């Protein structure tokens, strides 16, 4: 059995869904289970509708809902023809009227809670998966829609729920396996799940990749295919740098690091279930049926390039905490760490000196209550609109001069570095710059470490295989420390 996940752009229109059906038909022998995202931009539109309704702009949000309804019904008509789409329409209409009722309710109470947001966003994947399942059937693929809310069981951390694997495994076996064993294709919406009690939850934005991996692990799949709009994982985001090229092979460790540090092509937690069950993951281009993309496995042959890839994560805050006069230094550090712990704050990079500590965190996840608490024990400053740039490669450990080369390149780009992290058993070098400097810095680094002339180098990979520990990478360097395992675990709850 294999799990095939198609992202928003891969199901954005009738043509795109048509391509998905063709791709899936090439995998029938492998018993595919198909997971789909909402049609491109739908989740963002649902978010906007929710905010509008909660702000009392009910009619405007209902107007957007009309456009959303029209898009789905039109796509269904184009894919299924007038007769079959007319028979599907009532199933879709049930969801549109539930959505309308919900938006009106939001406008009445003027509040969108995390729980309400999960319910609201679940419609995107429900609608797309119902349409895709029917489109398959019309194209001679035996398919059955499966409600993911009855398969993926999570805790109740709304907007970034954590899967409960034992219950999920049991449900997947009960709901998905019987369909697959009748040689039919189960089709599920990604991103959405439910608590044990049946309350809808979501796995965090971009979470359909994670759904595919969770289902893959629950069913012991042979592989997990993530079909997207680029040729696999690339040496950097091709939107930032057009010279980016596809990485043929990459290890779980490296790919997880890239995903955590902003490579949007994979949800940060996607690789955790795959690592656990040692299931290979492929990232492939749904616009290219012959795509060979990127293969992600426990071990990957070394690349001749110094790094495997460069990534950037925007929306970061640097928090500087300086001990107030008279505070004992050891007591100060303990108080700061205890405060971070109390607020379950996922810190990326930490730099400590005798009487001060700086740490970075995603601005949207920085609790105001944490800042108020820290202000009571220290002088506090907070800088927003920062970004972490991260260069990943398992071969950098023990090679002299690499950090110098990175920082020289950044200096040549005229970019100021705010914080640095590199540790002993490193697979990455990461540092913080201002968000506005990211494009310049990444392009300079990419042309230095992945020069255009070296594009054929990947074919000359050395044959040596390495053993990559897939567990923790705890890095401590001078006064700079970052705990990768915590990051990946935190990302699991993204
Ligand atoms: P999907 O809708 O299929 O889930 P996403 O938009 O979530 O697709 O992810 C694909 C996008 O990720 C690409 O269009 C690309 O701009 C971005 N991206 C960022 N970093 C990378 C990278 N290193 N390799 C490939 N794509 C990347
Ligand atoms: N539709 C969801 C989002 O846009 C999940 C996903 O596409 O992976 O975040
Ligand atoms: Mg995605």
Verbal overview:
The chain is built from 14 helices and 19 strands. The chain has 494 residues and is an alpha/beta fold. The strands form 3 sheets. An 8-stranded mixed sheet has the order 3-5-2-1-8-10-11-9, with helices on both faces. Helix 1 (14-25) links the parallel strand 1 (2-6) and strand 2 (32-36). The longest helix is centred in the N-terminal third of the chain and has 52 residues, at 58-109. Mean pLDDT is 89; it is low at 454-494. Bound molecules: adenosine-5'-diphosphate (ADP), aspartic acid (ASP) and magnesium ion. Residues 7-8, 37-38, 43, 124, 190-191, 205-208 line the site of aspartic acid. The site of aspartic acid (ASP) has 12 residues, from loops.
């Amino acid at each position: 059995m294999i799990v095939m996940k198609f992202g928003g752009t891969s199901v954005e229109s009738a043509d795109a869904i048509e391509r998905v059906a063709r791709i899936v038909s090439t995998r029938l022998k492998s018993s595919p289970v198909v997971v789909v995202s909402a049609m491109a931009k739908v989740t963002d539109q649902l978010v906007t509708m929710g905010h509008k309704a909660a702000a009392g702009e009910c009619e405007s949000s209902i107007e957007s809902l009309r456009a959303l309804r029209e898009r789905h019904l039109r796509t269904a008509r184009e894919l299924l023809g007038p007769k079959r789409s007319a028979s599907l329409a009532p199933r879709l209409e049930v969801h549109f009227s539930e959505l309308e009722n919900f938006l009106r309710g939001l406008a009445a109470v003027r509040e969108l809670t995390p729980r309400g947001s999960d319910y609201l966003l679940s419609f995107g994947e429900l609608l797309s998966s119902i349409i895709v399942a029917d489109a398959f059937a019309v194209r001679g693929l035996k398919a059955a829609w499966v409600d993911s809310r009855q398969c993926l069981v999570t805790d109740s951390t709304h907007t970034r729920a954590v899967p409960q694997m034992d219950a999920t495994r049991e449900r997947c076996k009960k709901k998905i396996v019987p369909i697959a064993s009748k040689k039919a294709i189960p089709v599920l919406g990604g991103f959405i799940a439910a608590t044990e009690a049946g309350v809808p939850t979501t796995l965090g934005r971009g979470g359909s990749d994670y759904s595919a991996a969770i289902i893959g692990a629950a069913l012991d799949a042979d592989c997990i295919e993530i079909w997207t709009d680029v040729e696999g994982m690339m040496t950097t985001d091709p939107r930032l740098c057009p010279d980016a090229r596809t990485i043929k092979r990459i290890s779980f460790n490296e790919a997880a690091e890239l995903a955590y540090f902003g490579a949007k092509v994979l949800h940060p937690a996607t690789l955790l279930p795959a690592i656990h069950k040692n299931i290979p993951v492929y990232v492939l281009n749904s616009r290219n049926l012959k795509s060979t993309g990127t293969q992600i496995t426990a071990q990957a042959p070394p690349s001749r390039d110094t790094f495997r890839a460069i990534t950037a994560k925007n929306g970061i805050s640097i928090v500087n905490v300086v001990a107030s006069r008279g505070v004992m230094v050891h007591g100060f550090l303990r108080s700061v760490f205890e405060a971070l712990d109390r607020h379950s704050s996922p810190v990326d990079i930490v730099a400590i000196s005798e009487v001060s500590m700086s740490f970075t965190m995603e601005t949207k996840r920085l609790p105001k209550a944490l800042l108020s608490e820290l202000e009571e024990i220290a002088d506090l400053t907070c800088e927003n609109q920062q970004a972490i740039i991260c260069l990943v490669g398992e071969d950098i450990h023990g090679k002299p001069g690499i950090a110098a080369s990175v920082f020289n390149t950044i200096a040549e780009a005229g970019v100021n570095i705010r914080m640095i992290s590199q540790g002993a058993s490193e697979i990455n070098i990461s540092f913080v710059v201002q968000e506005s400097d990211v494009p310049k810095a990444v392009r300079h680094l990419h042309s230095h470490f992945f020069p255009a002339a070296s594009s054929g180098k990947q074919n000359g990979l050395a044959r040596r295989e390495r053993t990559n520990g897939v567990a923790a990478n705890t890095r401590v360097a001078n006064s700079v420390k970052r705990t990768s395992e915590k990051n990946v675990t935190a990302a699991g709850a993204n």
